[in-house]
Amino acid sequence: MTGLPLIPETAPFSAEQRLWLNGYMAGLLAGKGFVPAGQTAGGAAGAAPTLPLLILFGSQTGTAEKLAKQIAKEAKTKGCNARVVDASAHASVDWSKETNLLVVTSTYGDGDMPDNAQAFWDWLKTDAPGSLAHLKFSVLALGDTNYEQFCAAGKKIDARLELLGAQRIHDRTDCEVDYEAAAKAWTTAVLGKIGSVSDPVPSSVNGKGAHISTTPVVEPFGKKNPFPARLLNNVLLNKDGSDKEVRHYEISLEGSGLTYEAGDALGVVPHNCDELVNDLLATLHCSGDELVTVGGHAKPLRDALIRDYDVTKPSPELLAEVAKSAPDSVIAPLVTPERRDDLKKWLWGRDVHDLLNLLPAPMPVPQLLPLLKKLAPRLYSISSSPKAHPGEVHLTVGAVRYESHGRQRKGVASTFLADRVGDADYVKVFVQPSHGFKPPANGDTPMIMVGPGTGIAPFRAFLEERKATGAKGKNWLFFGDQKSTTDFLYEELLTGWQREGFLTRLDLAFSRDQAAKVYVQNRMLENAAELWQWLQEGAHFYVCGDASRMAKDVDAALRQVAETAGGLSQEAAVEFIKKLKADKRYQRDVY
User: What is the pTM of this model?
Assistant: First the structure.
């Protein structure tokens, strides 16, 4: 029987039907029962998948890249010949031959493309792509509704692909910070529409469909299962007289199995401030002991408001409901599209408590909870090297505190770390790998770092990593803050490295030390000739910090350096910067 032929191509079946039947016949011949198409009877990979699928990702921190790879893995089980391509490598794709495209992209800052997707977007906006009528596509956009331009990068790419004639096989999905459920639903729907060969038999069942093993799977520590870590140290970095409160945290990872590299971020699962929750309970006329259901589990309302819901940033749904229930309130006329800027100004410094106080009567809790966003983890750039601090991870975080509309306001996670995690308590954490923000792989490569304020965090990690590995490359740091006497973060460490020659150059910009404010971009321009020389020697250029102002000013200064010190035209300077990014020599960790 082993010599019997399988279903030939001349048989009156579709390609997908032949693949399914061949799998069935192969299993019968081997006495194994049904074997999925694309596998041999012994379970090893057999015939190659047949449906071509290009998955293009735009990623600033690595989340979209990781998700794209997960989607590709699932697509391959559905008979797709899936390949994942960095958006910066779009020129290597023969777009005339692509038939199925999935785009997974984040949005950086308030509406910008991720660095690795900018060149793709610039190309897509031109006439170069031609007609893409032969292409089927769908877009998965990652974003944060705290930004006005929510998921703008994905929306722009989605609209442009449609304008170029590509056929949308599934509507774009816009994901919040807590993206997993929405991304999974999108993936399932998209792969179902692209077409699947067959569902594979789970590896945990035998030929008769009986489960071989019932051993429970232990979930490793990670984003889905954050590790309860002990806070070892909480040190104020600013000196007396500072207007800021930046703290250095040391957190134990012992027993977690978590590992990280310089450039990665740490996810912190925060709790809301007790005082804010008490104010909210008073507005709701509740004691906090009322039982509510969250994720299928009953818990006291107070606990749910502290641990599960975002009570600082009102959701669009809550804004709409309050406007509807309080038509005479100040918020009612502001929820229209044309008043968006006015709404943004009104919301600044206000939270859910302020919004609910506009209602004529307390909103019932069962009505309120579905209108609140989930309390999302916060990501912070790691400021340590695991080689320098085995079993630990360090953070450099500015605590947010201010008064607005007669009440004290606090940053959720920054004051959670500062105030509400004591020596005997734990903070739940996970590691968020960064695939696009790493020190040079070659330790001999020069490194230029621009990190004012808490932007110093990853560069402390970069420098610790290089010192621990004995890297010989030159290191140049631009650091700035308000006052040198009170805000020189890690002063002793940095000046010590400078004295011993490990930190080749340290250029400082303290904005309030003189009448005319001086910033890191000013120091760059003052040292344009040497900065250009370092770049010509192959230096990697890094920026960390505020996306809306500092990062844009630094980018403009870098272009000016290329023009003045490099003698390039404006157009050539722009191309030079693009090439730096494409070569992974210009990397940013901005927020």
Answer: 0.76
